[in-house]
Amino acid sequence: MVRNYNLRKRVLVTGGAGFLGSHLCERLLADGCDVLCVDNLFTGTKDNIAHLLPSAHFELMRHDVTFPLFVEVDEIYNLACPASPIHYQHDPVQTTKTSVHGAINMLGLAKRVKAKILQASTSEVYGDPKVHPQTEDYWGNVNPIGTRSCYDEGKRCAETLFFDYHRQYKLKIKVARIFNTYGPRMHPNDGRVVSNFILQALRDEPITIYGEGNQTRSFCCVDDLVDGLVRLMNSPDDFTGPVNLGNPGEFTIKELAQKIIAITGSKSQLVFQPLPSDDPTQRKPVIDLARRVLDWTPALRWKTGWSEPSPTSTAPTGNRAQNKGNGRADHVSPRRPPHGRDFQ
Ligand SMILES: NC(=O)c1ccc[n+]([C@@H]2O[C@H](COP(=O)([O-])OP(=O)(O)OC[C@H]3O[C@@H](n4cnc5c(N)ncnc54)[C@H](O)[C@@H]3O)[C@@H](O)[C@H]2O)c1
Q1: List of E strands, the chain
Q2: Which of 101, 168, 173, 253 could be joined to 66 by an S-S link, Cβ 3.0–4.6 Å?
Q3: Residue 151 designated active-site
């Protein structure tokens, strides 16, 4: 039954206790939604959302999305999935199950309760791209049997399921292809490049670069990314995506390390190690579609001042500003880099 009385929107965020999910829960609460965070706490933690628990409009449910879920909601953001190679390769079978069974369970729920559903997909669906920069119509170059495949192919299959539910059952779907995002509450030891380099620099340890460091990446501030997800969810029903969300500013990994060393004043040296298998050499989103349909542009160039809100953000700043600084990224840094300095 569709509710026709005026209450807060009931929004489910799977993976809501993780890095991106916790910021999204904050944003949705600030927007006046009733938020249900569903998480099995595999990589997420209660610390990420502890500051939200006192709110009467926030609820944490410990649940694994590979099992069916029966709740009443109006919108679903499906973020549950370990996102860093260290985490998703820990139990690759469970990673694929989380993407595929998780998608089936959340799509089934959306179908039952007629909810709109958004999938947090990834730039990894492009694999090691032969097309650069990447547009949404590029089908990708993914190894189906490598050690990263549990994540890449799981996410690709989830996209397929979303579009089949859309075609077959007329479900309202949204698919976001998220590129590298950084900000408070990133896992400090998950092996992702930004957190790795910052930690190594702050400890004056050698900074590990895989290969020659000429592979490129782009980095989006978490506030911008969350704003893009909310805009996508609120976009017209006939807009499904997939849509790239990321910052098109591009760095080589070596440049990134050098900039982090300069900003932190670190004594770290660069050390070079062999490139892991299937590590993409280039990654940069074309975001014309997001600009045109969502009126979304990542406003921040790459800065250490990640608590600065995006001018494109429509959310009230009160709660969000208060909550900054609760993130674990703050705890790892006795010598936190100065705010607002441009990396570009
Ligand atoms: N952070 C990025 O740069 C990035 C880039 C591309 C895509 N994404 C996608 O965004 C989503 C969130 O990524 P993140 O960086 O916040 O990662 P994260 O590991 O911090 O968050 C993932 C969350 O999902 C939860 N989870 C994992 N398996 C689950 C399961 N079976 N049932 C319920 N909960 C489960 C974890 O406990 C965690 O809280 C992921 O789907 C990821 O693929 C992230």
Answers
A1: 10-14, 34-39, 58-62, 75-78, 116-122, 173-178, 181-182, 207-210, 216-218, 220-221, 243-245, 250-252, 270-273
A2: 101
A3: yes
Q: Ligand 1: which of 37, 79, 89, 126 to mutate, judged by most atoms within 8 Å of the beta carbon?
A: 79
pLDDT score at 188: 79
**Amino acid 323: pLDDT:** 31
Q: Residue 255: CB partners within 8 Å, gap ≥ 6?
A: none
Output the pTM of the full model.
0.85
- pLDDT for res 258: 92
| Res. 2: pLDDT tops 80 | no
3 Cα–ligand 1 center, Å: 30
The ligand 1 atom nearest the CA atom of 94: 31
pLDDT digits (tens, 9 = 90+) for 102-152: 999 999 999 999 999 999 999 999 998 999 899 999 999 999 999 999 999
* Nearest alpha carbon, ligand 1 atom 34: 39
Which tokens is 243 given? 């849509």
Q: Could you tell me if the CB of 225 is within 6 A of ligand 1?
A: no
Fold of domain 10-185+220-249+284-331? Rossmann fold (3.40.50)
pLDDT in tens, 294-338: 999 997 555 544 433 333 333 322 233 233 333 222 222 222 222
DSSP 314: -
Domain-wise residue ranges, the chain = 10-185+220-249+284-331
Query: What is the rounded average pLDDT of the residues 8-26?
Result: 97
For 134, counting Cβ atoms within 10 Å of its Cβ (0-12 exposed, 13-18 middle, 19+ buried), the class is buried
Helices 19-30 and 222-233, interaxial angle, to 10°? 60
120 close to ligand 1 (CB < 6 Angstrom):
yes
Residue 342 backbone dihedrals phi, psi, to 5 degrees = -70, 135
83 Cβ closer than 6 Å to some ligand 1 atom: yes
Nearest CA, atom 7, ligand 1: 122
Cβ(80) – ligand 1 distance below 6 Å: yes
